Write a sequence for this structure.
């Protein structure tokens, strides 16, 4: 799923875009959490094709994405980011989107459009 399709699906807004070609980046998976330790523990492969979905609107979400080589973060619930968070994302080439929807709604919209989930063996 292209970043532009993700933006459209969640009725989102661009906070920061690394470059105009970033809207053509393809993503296969989404991972939603406000606990960055969960992201670090559970996103163990396909990092570059994973979107991080969070309501944690501080520098830790950017640091986590950087550590995992994630290039797109979606902030939910219309979170406002401080300038230092946006600057940090720019320094690490991480695009930032936001949506007024809840995390649950954003996940549902993206799942419905075909974005997969990180396998955490929930059915075993």
């Amino acid at each position: 799923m292209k970043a532009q399709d993700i933006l459209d699906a969640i009725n989102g807004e661009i906070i920061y875009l690394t470059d105009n070609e970033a809207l053509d980046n393809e993503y296969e998976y989404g991972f939603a959490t406000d606990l960055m330790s969960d992201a670090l523990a559970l996103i163990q492969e396909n990092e570059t094709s994973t979107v991080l979905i969070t309501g944690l609107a501080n520098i830790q979400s950017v640091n986590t994405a950087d550590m995992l080589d994630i290039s797109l973060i979606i902030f939910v619930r219309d979170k406002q980011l401080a300038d230092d968070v946006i600057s940090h994302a720019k320094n690490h080439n991480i695009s930032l989107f936001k949506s007024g929807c809840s995390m649950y709604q954003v996940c549902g919209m993206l799942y419905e459009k075909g974005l997969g989930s990180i396998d955490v063996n929930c059915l075993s």
Remarks:
- The first strand starts at residue 13 and ends at 16.
